């Protein structure tokens, strides 16, 4: 995990054992001026761009939000969970594992005396693994592109929000009392000025069908001997993502072009943010601190890091070249601090929904029985006590998928945020992000310090030496200044905070002072969600039975069936 560059003369970077004499090193002022060169600015902004994409791609329903409300006929998406949540023991396990791999590659290079064989093997392995990364990045990019063409809302120059209804194939507005009014003359799924370009009924009908084919779910079914073995739903973008991923990874494997290598590296970072994250801020800080020590030792006190980084030609780093040299940034310098920055963004989202949580009064009745024994008989007395508690009611979560197009079309020219009436776009994309922005500032400062020291010393630097204090320090300092260190310390994504029907006690000012027992949410399923799933499940099971065992035709039986059913919207009555 190092950042390094060729010297101004084009010579190779000096190793730790052969430091550059002081008289040959550029002065600090000259080194600082070189930071404005394109290759160094590309390093900084590329790393920040990847982290921004990965952090926003990792957003999912926080424990402070209720499951989203379902529309009629809509299936609930399962809450996305990380494949692996980092725990405290990973602070020891990860540096040991990385050191073993790095040292093994170093001695393998020394033994073979030619890294070509290793590069071919790594490129082949990573080409297969990159399909998932490129597919995830391409799929989310296609979703955002689709939402730009077919959003669900848009705002005119006066701030009036128009909602696009695919079921009724119309556009409508909502007044202050919540009443819907269909807008005449706007029977197209296109937003803004684009809605005026389509005039014929046939063109509008074609656009609605196209929108449904792209955004709707396709059903793939494989049946043998009348029994469904495989049945799942996917969208048109899911089909395209794997096609794009296969084409890009095949092109990279065949050509080893540096631009494709950078693209594959970006995709690998992106999918890592989806799969790996610390479960809390203390654990994330511990993991970063341990990798901080690992990076310093491997770069400054061993030849392993720089030797391997210079000899391995595989998508494990970002490389930017120019006429004056080349700059290189290991993917670990993006992923390691980026994991904590993604956690900071999800903490911002958690706080956004937590501020909207309402407390509803609940009257609790308690009966207590007591027995008295007079001289004649035993008398049982029942005492009823009524107390008023408060139940925490969470706001339904707004899925981020499709909301970036809504944000674009509801943001007026010259503004950065959507109009206030676009509540869904604001909740999904424009919520306050103080912790994430603080970590971005800390990362950018750490990167500039890394490059400055590297240019002054003319030696590869362990980027985590500067990035870890910048990111972790900025987050904990933000929590201190905002008086939320306790909230940061207590926040966790291990599922223990995702509860429903929580009864809490409040003080005289309405602040929560104590939480009662709540039912733990299993995968984001509450009572309302269970009813929706049961209804959807019942419909699905009935459909399966009709497909697997068709009634009225006992003499015919499916031996083998593979079908792909495209979505088709029924024309409005």
The tally of strands reads 19
Query: What does the largest sheet look like?
Result: 4 strands, antiparallel
Mean pLDDT: 77
Parts with pLDDT < 50 across at least 5 consecutive residues = 1-24, 522-550
Calculate the terminal CA-CA distance, rounded to whole Å. Answer: 62 Å
How does the helix and strand content classify structurally?
Answer: alpha+beta
- What's the helical proportion of residues? 40-55%
Question: Strand-residue fraction?
Answer: 15-25%
- Overall 3D geometry? globular
Characterise this structure:
This protein has a domain at 2-60 and 82-152 and 221-359 and 393-405 and 415-527. It contains 16 helices and 19 strands. 48% of the residues lie in helices and 18% in strands. A hairpin with a 4-residue loop joins strand 4 and strand 5. The chain is an alpha+beta fold and 573 residues long. Residues 511-524 have a biased composition (Basic and acidic residues).
Please write out the topology.
Blueprint: E1 2-5, H1 28-34, H2 38-57, E2 84-86, H3 90-112, H4 116-149, E3 153-155, E4 161-165, E5 170-174, E6 180-182, H5 201-215, E7 217-224, E8 227-235, H6 236-255, H7 258-275, E9 276-278, H8 281-300, H9 304-311, E10 317-322, E11 325-330, H10 332-355, E12 358-372, E13 379-393, H11 403-409, H12 423-429, H13 434-457, E14 461-462, H14 464-481, H15 485-490, E15 499-500, E16 502-506, E17 512-515, E18 519-520, H16 527-548, E19 560-565
Helix pairs in contact: 1-13, 2-7, 2-10, 2-13, 3-8, 3-9, 4-6, 4-7, 4-11, 8-10, 8-14, 10-13, 10-14, 11-12, 13-14
């Amino acid at each position: 995990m190092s950042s390094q560059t060729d010297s101004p003369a084009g010579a190779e970077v000096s190793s730790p054992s052969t430091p550059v004499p002081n008289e040959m090193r550029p002065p600090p002022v000259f080194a600082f001026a070189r930071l404005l060169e394109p290759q160094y600015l590309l390093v900084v902004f590329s790393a920040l761009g990847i982290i921004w994409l990965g952090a926003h791609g990792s957003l999912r329903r926080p424990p402070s939000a209720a499951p989203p409300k379902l529309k009629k006929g809509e299936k609930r998406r399962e809450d996305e969970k990380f494949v692996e949540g980092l725990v405290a023991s990973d602070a020891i396990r990860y540096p040991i594992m990385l050191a073993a791999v790095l040292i093994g590659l170093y001695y393998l290079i020394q033994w073979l005396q030619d890294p070509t064989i290793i590069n071919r093997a790594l490129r082949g392995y990573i080409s297969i693994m990159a399909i998932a990364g490129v597919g995830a990045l391409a799929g989310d990019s296609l979703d955002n592109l689709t939402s730009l063409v077919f959003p669900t809302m848009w705002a005119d120059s006066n701030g009036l929000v128009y909602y696009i209804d695919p079921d009724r194939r119309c556009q409508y507005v909502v007044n202050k009392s919540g009443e819907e009014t269909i807008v005449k003359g706007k029977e197209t799924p296109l937003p803004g000025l684009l809605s005026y370009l389509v005039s014929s009924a046939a063109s509008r009908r074609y656009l609605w069908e196209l929108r449904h084919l792209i955004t709707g779910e396709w059903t793939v079914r494989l049946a043998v001997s009348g029994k469904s073995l495989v049945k799942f739903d996917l969208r048109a973008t899911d089909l395209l993502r794997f096609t794009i991923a296969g084409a890009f990874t095949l092109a990279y494997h065949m050509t080893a072009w540096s631009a494709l290598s950078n693209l594959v590296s970006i995709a690998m970072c992106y999918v890592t943010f989806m799969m790996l994250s610390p479960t809390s801020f203390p654990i994330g800080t511990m993991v970063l601190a341990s990798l901080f020590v690992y990076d310093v030792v491997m770069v400054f006190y061993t030849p392993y890091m720089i030797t391997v980084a210079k000899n391995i030609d595989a998508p494990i780093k970002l490389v930017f070249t120019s006429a004056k040299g080349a700059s290189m940034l290991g993917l670990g310098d993006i992923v390691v601090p980026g994991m904590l920055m993604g956690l900071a963004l999800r903490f911002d989202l958690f706080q956004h929904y937590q501020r909207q949580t309402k407390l509803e009064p609940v009257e609790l009745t308690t009966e207590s029985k007591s027995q008295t024994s007079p001289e004649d008989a035993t008398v049982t007395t029942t005492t009823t006590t009524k107390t008023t508690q408060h139940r925490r009611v969470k706001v339904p979560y707004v899925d981020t998928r499709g909301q970036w197009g809504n944000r674009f079309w509801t943001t007026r020219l010259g503004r950065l945020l959507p109009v206030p009436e676009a509540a869904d776009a604001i909740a999904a994309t424009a919520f306050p992000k103080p912790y994430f922005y603080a970590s971005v500032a800390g990362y950018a400062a750490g990167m500039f310090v890394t490059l400055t020291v590297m240019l002054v010393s003319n030696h590869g630097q362990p980027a985590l030496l500067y990035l870890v204090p910048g990111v972790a320090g900025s987050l904990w300092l933000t929590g201190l200044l905002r008086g939320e260190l306790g909230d940061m310390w207590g926040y966790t994504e291990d599922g223990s905070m995702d509860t429903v029907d929580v009864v809490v006690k409040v003080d005289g000012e309405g602040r929560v002072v104590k939480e009662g027992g709540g039912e733990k949410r299993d995968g984001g399923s509450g009572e309302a969600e269970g009813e929706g799933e049961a209804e959807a499940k019942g419909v699905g099971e009935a459909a399966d039975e009709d497909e697997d065992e068709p009634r009225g035709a006992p003499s015919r039986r499916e031996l083998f069936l593979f079908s792909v059913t495209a979505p088709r919207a029924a024309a409005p009555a």
